[in-house]
Design a protein that fits this description.
The complex is a heterodimer of chains A (384) and B (230). Chain A is an alpha+beta fold and 384 residues long. Chain A has helices at 2-31, 54-65, 96-102, 127-133, 168-173, 179-185, 205-215, 227-230, 232-270, 272-280, 285-321, 328-334, 347-371, 377-382, and strands at 34-38, 70-81, 86-94, 109-112, 122-126, 140-146, 152-163, 174-178, 194-197, 222-226. Chain A is built from 14 helices and 10 strands. In chain A, strand 2 (70-81) and strand 3 (86-94) form a beta hairpin. In chain B, 35% of the residues lie in helices and 30% in strands. A 6-stranded mixed beta sheet of chain B has the order 6-7-8-3-9-10, with helices on both faces. Classes of the chains: A alpha+beta (384), B alpha/beta (230).
Chain lengths: 384, 230
């Protein structure tokens, strides 16, 4: 019981830490915790589904939330061509001044620099895209796409930086340009497609969403979405992983419950004679059953306390020192995770597993306790 | 009033395909303060009768009264309450709880009755002294002789002043000197506490202590003799 509790505390802590890391890493790259978009843009990213006067809206939201981690963006699909090659990419127009507050990409520039001027004809591209285009810092990129009004959009930008986010898909398909340049190139007339908000903590996202939703003028067709709506795949991946993990935990709890059932049944059988004696002396069967339940509860509680304590200590050790599983690095890279894990102990992760084991322990002791009601003192006292 | 009354009780056991009549229309009255010996050869029905009187076994038919209360139709829980309040048991095999000391064994019944720890300790020490076990209070059953264990069992049976003590072959595992000491103790308790004793035995020396001797054979009472106790 103690071992299973230790295992549960450690595994649940590790799992929830992984989820937090997955969420944080995924959201900090581009998505943010919240986004204000035109209605329908989330499902179908059409150029004409815009947020009008997006920079002013971002400023207003900063004031309303008293939060600086807010940035306006525009996004378009375009053909990016170097001297030698062309690739289809997503061009994101960003506010250089604020982008680093909502996204990790500005901090992941490995060559050159990040964008500085909101109107400069500059571009930052992913490292895989740079390799594919055979282009480097200082080279020109030609962008061809459709403008907001459906007209042909084309422009040239100088590569000022190359970023490497660690996520191959992003590094292959994303390029960032200043929002002013983006609006000029794609005829946006001051509009954009997203206002990205990064909450100080994940748990505050809901409250901020409600605040922004309440503030948004009713006559606009703007919506505010949280990260679960923006990244349904991430939420589904976590839910799927949780389901399989809970199945495993369920099996573990059932194994513990059966071992307790077996132990308590043996314990009751071994003490049949003693139970017969004390029933003959005048102890009611119901009271004897309660004593057996109390005994199990005490054992379960000791198992819970010791298991949770050791589990917490083990988790605490690895929260500082971390650990890695051989072969995990590829999977970790897929979810934008580091290859070394640092589980975080907390009240929920420390006690949720052991409390469930404790409850199942009590449940499994009910049968041996109920059997005592069928015990007849005369026959019980004859037991060896 | 009668301490015990059995009215036409029957009890049949199945041993394989064979039906054994352990009690065959048994009727007896035992007065309060009586000292009765049930005498029978092995399989004669004396233990079954004791168990029926003590509520440890329910007869197939007939009625059993203890202290005027009918008990053969009580639930297991109510029978346990009756034994706790009114009946003390002394078993042939002592039936002490091995993990408890002599004092803890004696205190057990009082503990179940809800007597306070101080009162339990005082009464258990006094009764252990009365049965001659002073200084052995902290010994476990395995550390005591058969006679000493049986004395602990007697102390446990009488410590809460029951109206009735049922003893099943209490001297079967004791030597003659210890048997005599135990029966002297029973006689003394019967006279000083006015406790009713029903003792099942086939030991003639034990029978000599009883004021009344009931002989059984094949589950039936065959003789009922008033006698002068030794």
């Amino acid at each position: 019981m103690i071992f299973s509790n230790v295992l549960l505390v450690f595994l649940i802590s590790l799992q929830f830490s992984m989820y937090q890391l997955m969420i944080a890493n995924t959201l900090q790259t581009l998505t943010g915790h919240l986004q204000v978009q035109a209605e329908g843009y989330k499902d179908e990213q059409k150029m004409r589904l815009v947020v009008p006067d997006v920079i002013a809206l971002a400023d207003d939201i900063r004031n309303v939330l008293d939060l600086q981690d807010v940035a306006a963006r525009g996004a378009a699909f375009a053909l990016a061509s170097s001297e030698q090659r062309s690739y289809g990419i997503q061009v994101i127009g960003v506010q250089p001044e604020f982008e680093a507050r909502v996204s990790s990409i500005p901090g992941q520039v490995t060559e050159g620099r990040y964008l500085q001027d909101n109107d400069a004809a500059e571009i930052v591209i992913g490292s895989v895209l740079a390799r594919n285009l055979r282009a480097g810092v200082g080279d020109e990129i030609t962008l061809l796409g459709n403008g907001r009004d459906g007209s042909f959009a084309a422009n040239v930008a100088i590569i000022v930086g190359i970023f490497s986010s660690g996520a191959v898909d992003l590094d292959r398909s994303i390029a960032e340009v200043p929002l002013g340049y983006f609006q000029d190139t794609f005829f946006m007339e001051g509009a954009g497609h997203q206002v990205v908000i990064r909450a100080p903590q994940l748990s505050m996202a809901g409250a901020l969403q409600a605040q922004v939703a309440a503030w948004l003028p009713a006559e606009t067709n703007l919506e505010v979405y949280d990260w679960m709506e923006l990244q349904p795949g991430l939420k589904q991946a976590i839910q799927a992983d949780l389901s399989s993990a809970f199945f495993m935990y369920g099996v573990l709890v059932i194994l513990v419950a059966f071992s307790v059932l077996n132990t308590q049944l043996m314990s009751v059988l071994e003490r049949t004679r003693e139970f017969g004696i004390i029933m003959a002396l005048g102890l009611r069967p119901g009271r004897l059953g309660k004593l057996v339940m109390l005994e199990t509860a005490f054992m379960g509680f000791v198992g819970l306390a010791i298991g949770a304590l050791i589990g917490y200590a083990v988790t605490l050790y690895f929260s500082y020192n971390g650990f890695s599983i051989p072969g995990m690095d590829q999977m970790a890279a897929q979810f934008n995770l580091p290859d070394r894990m640092y589980p975080n102990p907390g009240w929920l992760t420390t006690f949720s597993g052991p409390v469930v084991v404790f409850l199942f322990t009590l449940l499994s002791a009910a049968y041996p306790a109920l059997r005592l009601h069928r015990l007849r003192p005369v026959e019980a006292m004859r037991a060896a | 009033m009668n301490a015990v009354q059995c009215v036409d009780i029957c009890k049949t056991y199945l041993q394989g395909d064979q039906e054994i009549k352990a009690l065959d229309h048994v009727s007896i009255d035992i007065a309060e303060g009586g000292f009765v010996c049930l005498s029978a050869p092995s399989g004669g029905g004396k233990t079954t009768l004791l168990n029926a009187i003590g509520g440890l076994d329910i007869p197939d038919s007939g009625e059993v009264y203890v202290g005027g209360e009918r008990i053969d139709n009580l639930s297991k829980g109510d029978l346990a309450d009756l034994r706790l309040a009114k009946i003390g048991f002394v078993f042939q095999a002592y039936n002490l709880i091995p993990v408890l000391t002599a004092r803890e064994n004696v205190e057990f019944v009082m503990q179940v009755q809800g007597v306070s720890a101080n009162a339990r300790r005082q009464k258990s020490m006094a009764i252990l002294q009365e049965v001659g076990l002073e200084g052995l209070e902290d010994r476990r059953p395995a550390e005591m002789s058969g006679g000493q264990q049986q004395r602990v069992a007697v102390a446990r049976a009488i410590v809460s002043n029951p109206e009735l003590v049922l003893a099943d072959e209490p001297t079967a595992n004791l030597d003659s000197r210890t048997s005599s000491e135990l029966m002297d103790l029973f006689t003394e308790l019967n006279e000083t506490h006015a406790t009713t004793f029903v003792v099942a035995t086939h030991d003639k020396r034990v029978m000599a202590y009883a004021k009344r001797l009931i002989k059984m054979l094949d589950g039936r009472i065959v003789d009922d003799i008033q006698q002068k106790a030794a």
